[in-house]
Amino acid sequence: MSLSDLLFLLESGVMAAWKKVIRREDWEKKLNDVRIRKEDMNKLVMNFLVTEGYVDAAEKFRIESGAEPEIDLATITDRMAVKKAVQCGNVEDAIEKVNDLNPEILDTNPQLFFHLQQQRLIELIRNGKVEEALEFAQEELAPWGEENQSFLAELERTVALLAFEDVSNCPVRDLLDISQRLKTANEVNAAILTSQSHEKDPKLPNLLKMLLWAQDQLDEKAAYPRINDLSTAMLEDPPI
Known about the structure:
mainly alpha, two-stranded parallel sheet, two-stranded antiparallel sheet, 4 strands
């Protein structure tokens, strides 16, 4: 062990010894002293339900809590229909539904439109429609690649799927994974939410990330009852 390693261990031991220990009763008292308005909690829950597309739950929660959603709940059903169409590989149907919702979404977002067209190409390849896929790539996607290098790289990567009879050995086989559909579906979902002046992501997960970050910062200075399992939110005493 080097001298620097030894000094580090000694310093760590000293720091650990000087950590402040907060008893459970004191910690719980501090938590109970924090006052959060029920209205704010209801808004947080409603934000999550609306953003994630739980329209039935959002409607029931609106009736029970009185919390009004920031957007018309009817639009959630339309948005989820678009997302589901992409997840099922029905990209043409999804594009039609987006245009029915708001034609400006695709008109003002060329990257999203390209990714939807790219997903159409992937679905053609998935279904073994090689000639149709080549024709679609040449007529619909090649012009995009000529104008944008990043689009060209994505197009070339997608067309590479056609070079392999056994896609299990293909270096770009991830494009055929369900995760690729989900990625495109989430991109469309975010674009629709943005067009409705709504956040792309629910606030609740970000608050939980902030909680974990705050605990990590506090761990360096104190030993206290912390939340280790977010699903239960139970306080656990620290090892002393």
